[in-house]
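BUG: 3D viewer hangs when loading the predicted structure for this chain

Environment: internal workstation, default settings.
Expected: structure renders.
Actual: progress bar stalls at 90%.

Input used:
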Amino acid sequence: MTSNPADLSMLTEIWVIEEYTPKEFEINTDDVVIDIGAYLGFFSLYAAKLASNGKVHCFEPLPNNFFTLSKNI
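Structure tokens produced before the viewer hung:
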């Protein structure tokens, strides 16, 4: 997780406000989602919840972010 206020704002945008999933962009239960630049995994986790029978592939090139992403996932 994180304690950075900017990261907490991003988490709110994804999970509470749902800015990353507008009505014209639905993630269905059997979808495959690719998250390039997954950062700390906030969207990847959200997508995994929606694509419960599908798959989520997330990629993060920065080692520190990847370490936190791995812990969050």
